[in-house]
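Hi U.,

Before I forget, here's the chain from the pilot set. I'm dumping it here mostly so it's searchable later in email.
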Amino acid sequence: MPAKKLTRSRDDRWIAGVCGGIAEFTGIDTTVVRVIIAIATLLGAGSLVVIYLACWLLIPREPATALSPEPPSSSSH
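Structure:
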């Protein structure tokens, strides 16, 4: 079994997929991760914003899968 890697989520994202990726990696609900990040940012006077931006740049994006949904077909009437 391959080791689990931390990646930014492609599907569970609001901005860059950092919270979604952390949630998938740790097994914690995404909403809980987002609330913890938001509260920690407010209590830390915004210093967590810099850490979030660093994670956005350093954590690789989740690879695309072959089972990705197909784009909608254009049907003419």
